[in-house]
Task: inverse folding
């Protein structure tokens, strides 16, 4: 317990209450401080000495209070005049003064401390002494580094930094995070994450809840989210780290929220995904070529190429041959006969069809007919419609009812059009993009070579006309 010079005064607390020295309250307050504190009267005599000062230097309050200055016990005799002069100069200086010097411990060691001293004024306003708060320099430097780190994270960091409160709402956001969220730093505060992100909210909230309950995960996590922007939703991949924030003032850890640090790694992940997809598709083409080389029937070889192409690419596929076997460029409207298709409703190998030679009733403007007319690929999608209209859209085009995206690639061999291969995707997949069209065209080249090797194979050698819509 700290010792103080008591003047013998007491406070009257009320009838029936025992008298209590007001200095006891002062001593309790001083002992509860995190910083070491001592005080001197106008003559340089130590009047106060708290427990933190005892912890740092080893001198107890009973040993310190009443001594004149630090000379010979807390400071080397050679250094004492300078140290005491710097401390007592605070009586005449305005505000606080900061100094650094070495103090002696009771065990004889030296401790470099940083002090803040200021004058203590009496009832008449004149300086009556000096108080001095001090701490070990390395402790002060650690504190300053922590503050500097916090300021740097929220001002200059290349990572997004968000402090999320216990209700999973942003409480502090740095400039980088605000830019990534597409909103101002103040506008994001206190808003639910669902208002900021249109996708990946559940996964992010689950991670934050886990950190609040269990603590930080052992490694960063990568999360795909969709950010709301005026131009529409943007899908981003954020590499995220989480830290549980607890109050240092509570006896037991009380979670104040979560520190969420993230970095946008979308471009790197997309590049990796594209490279992995390219490797997979190249391997599929290679495997299909080797399997097709073992087929005696060229028609069967064409279905082998179709089956290998479906893996990870489409849900259904079908091959339509031009009636008469081939169509010359600019020949005019043609009819198509279904040659092969994958089973609808259940997975399985492609099946040869079209033995009856009946043309498929494609209406005018059908993507397959456009593909033949252009001698190039055609992509089509139903768009944002309800399931009933999507099913009607697919059935009207003679496709399975679950199809919502289509890619038609022309079958060309020896400068002639042999037909069309159509790849179809259901609602669980994204629409066909340009890289998908390139892959579909590679598959179409191999299918066309197999069909050309099989000969015309068409039951009707008379070119037909386009069916009525």
Result:
């Amino acid at each position: 317990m700290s010792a103080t010079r008591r003047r013998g005064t007491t406070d009257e607390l009320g009838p029936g209450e025992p008298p209590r020295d007001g200095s006891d309250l002062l001593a309790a307050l001083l002992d509860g401080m995190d910083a070491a504190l001592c005080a001197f009267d106008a003559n340089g005599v130590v009047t106060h000495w708290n427990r933190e000062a005892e912890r740092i230097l080893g001198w107890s309050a009973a040993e310190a209070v009443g001594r004149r200055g630090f000379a010979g016990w807390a400071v080397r005799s050679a250094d004492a005049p300078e140290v005491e002069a710097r401390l007592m100069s605070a009586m005449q200086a305005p505000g606080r003064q900061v100094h650094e010097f070495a103090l002696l411990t009771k065990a004889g060691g030296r401790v470099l401390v940083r002090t803040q001293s200021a004058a203590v004024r009496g009832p008449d306003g004149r300086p009556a002494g000096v108080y001095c708060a001090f701490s070990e320099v390395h402790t002060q430097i650690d504190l300053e580094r922590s503050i500097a780190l916090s300021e740097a994270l929220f001002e200059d960091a290349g990572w997004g930094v968000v402090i999320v409160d216990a209700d999973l709402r942003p409480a502090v956001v740095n400039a980088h995070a605000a830019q990534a969220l597409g909103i101002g730093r103040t506008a994001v505060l206190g808003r639910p994450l669902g208002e900021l992100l249109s996708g990946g909210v559940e996964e992010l909230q689950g991670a934050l809840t886990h950190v609040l309950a269990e603590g930080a995960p052992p490694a960063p996590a990568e999360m795909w989210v969709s950010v709301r922007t005026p131009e529409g939703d943007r899908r981003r991949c954020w590499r995220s780290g989480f830290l549980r924030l607890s109050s240092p003032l509570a006896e037991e850890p009380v979670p104040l929220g979560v520190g969420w640090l993230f970095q946008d790694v979308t471009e790197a992940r997309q590049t990796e995904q594209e490279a992995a997809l390219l490797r997979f598709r190249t391997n599929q083409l290679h495997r299909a070529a080797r399997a097709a080389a073992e087929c005696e029937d060229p028609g069967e070889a064409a279905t082998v190429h179709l089956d290998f192409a479906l893996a990870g690419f489409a849900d259904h596929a079908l091959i339509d041959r031009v009636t008469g076997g081939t169509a010359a460029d600019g020949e005019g409207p043609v009819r198509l006969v279904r040659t092969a298709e994958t089973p609808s409703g259940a997975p399985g190998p492609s099946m040869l069809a079209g033995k009856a030679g009946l043309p498929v009733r494609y209406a005018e403007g059908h993507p397959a007919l456009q593909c033949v007319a252009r001698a190039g690929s055609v992509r089509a999608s139903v768009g944002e419609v309800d399931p009933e209209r999507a099913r009607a859209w697919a059935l009207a085009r003679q496709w399975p009812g679950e199809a919502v995206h289509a890619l038609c690639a022309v079958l060309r061999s020896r400068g002639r059009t042999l037909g069309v291969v159509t790849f179809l995707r259901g609602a669980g997949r994204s629409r066909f993009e340009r890289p998908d069209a390139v892959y579909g065209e590679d598959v179409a080249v191999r299918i066309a070579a197999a069909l050309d090797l099989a000969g015309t194979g068409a039951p009707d050698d008379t070119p037909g006309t386009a069916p009525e819509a």
User: Anything to note?
Assistant: The chain is about 30% helix and 25% strand. Residues 32 and 51 are 8 Å apart (CA to CA).
